[in-house]
From TrEMBL:
A Pfam family that the UniProt record links to this protein: N_methyl
Keyword vocabulary terms for this entry: Membrane, Transmembrane, Transmembrane helix
Protein name (record): Tfp pilus assembly protein FimT/FimU
Keyword Membrane: yes
Domain of life: Bacteria
Organism whose genome encodes this protein: Haloferula chungangensis
Lineage: Bacteria, Pseudomonadati, Verrucomicrobiota, Verrucomicrobiia, Verrucomicrobiales
Coiled-coil region(s): none
Keyword Chloroplast: no
TM ranges: 12-35
InterPro entries per record: N_methyl_site, Pilin-like
Length: 233
């Protein structure tokens, strides 16, 4: 019987081991980069879903001939899953004659929750994006369900009228396009305002809402935050 050669019994050479180590190092580096960019993926995932929520709100307002609102949950900072991460649509109830019933709102569909480490930006979401001015209005909510009724401060909102016009941007006869901005970051225990991480200072995304309800996504973060690198949002 033929004896095995010295080569077959020698195992891996030093060069082969170095190549394997190099491949493992490259794979670990790619994996680490993926974890660092997790927030960015959250923002890019949330944006189309948020646009769909706005489309729903406009369609509901026109279809039912009443006001509708997109609500952003800012009610209770202790609610880790909802605070600055939950958004949903409501519309104003009407009577048998089609007249709006004051302070009576109906939930439309299900709420959308942003991906982990992705938050609504109160700092950069404005009534007038171009001028970076005007804070969004707030409202309380009751009579809907225990999951949505306000417990503390309530909700920020964007509004559409029965004609499908985004009234949030109306300023007399003028229209100033409001903005919807989200960002990737972290919110520490006891902190009401999320903060950007060292490797995600420019991890922002969003869109403006035009008079007819159409949205235009920002092409890059500088259209939202300029050249700055904010520490919170």
């Amino acid at each position: 019987m033929k004896r095995p050669s010295e080569r077959s019994r020698a195992g891996f050479t030093l060069v082969e081991l170095l190549v394997v180590i190099l491949i493992i190092t490259v794979l670990l580096t790619i994996g680490a980069a993926g974890f660092r960019n997790a927030g960015g993926k959250g923002v890019s995932t949330a944006l189309p879903s948020a646009e769909a929520i706005f489309d729903e709100a406009r369609s509901v307002a026109v279809g039912k001939g009443t006001l509708s609102r997109v609500l952003i949950d800012v009610d209770d900072p202790s609610s880790e899953g909802n605070y600055l991460r939950r958004m949903f649509v409501i519309y104003q109830a009407t009577d048998d004659n089609g007249e709006p019933i004051p302070n009576s709102w109906v939930l439309s569909g299900k709420a959308y929750i942003f991906p982990p480490k992705t938050y609504f930006s109160r700092e950069f979401s404005k009534k007038n994006h171009k001028a970076q001015s005007g804070s969004l209005d707030t409202m309380t909510l009751s009579g809907v369900s225990g999951m949505y009724n306000s417990k503390k401060t309530g909700y920020l909102y964007y509004e559409f009228n029965a004609e499908g016009i985004c009234t949030t941007g109306l300023n007399g006869d003028e229209y100033d396009a409001p903005s919807f901005v989200i960002a990737g970051g972290a919110r520490g225990r006891g902190e009401d305002t999320p903060r950007t991480t060292s490797d995600g200072r420019r991890d922002f995304g969003g869109f403006v809402i035009w008079r007819n309800g159409a949205t235009s996504v920002f092409r890059n973060p500088t259209q939202i935050i300029g050249a700055d690198s904010p520490t919170n949002f």
